[in-house]
Amino acid sequence: MVVFKEVPIEIRSSFYNNPTYIYINRDGITNNYGSYFREQGGYSYISFWDTNNGQRLNYCSGDSDGSYDPCIYYLGTDLKIAETISRESNVRYELTKDAGGKSTPLNGAKTETMYAKGNTFSSHGTEINGYLEVLSESDPKSYTWLPVDLLKPVK
Length: 155
Prior knowledge:
The chain is mostly beta strands.
């Protein structure tokens, strides 16, 4: 029998230059499936904590006056790590085939809106996990995530 041991989240994180952490547990208790976060300068920080049950990641944002805990604690096994790639923002793209826009950059996430081939989008400048955050030019209410390989720049 083969027993697999968890690779600590801190070690997994070290393979990425600019990691984004995506919550992949569908229990809905700690957070919503597909919610994501990353360390962002002075506003938020990430630390790691070893426990008897494996390593945890602590994500803390904002300041606390001591009346509440500004941190959320995640088990390392509940997180997928993906590289965050900064791209030029406000670049226009055309969709090369019908695709579903998602609220999170995760393949298994629910499709929020279907877009037809030929729709045009403006990029926000962030790519995570093979998805680009874009704004539909025909319905510019909110950003959505679309697969990068289905978008081509408009000249």
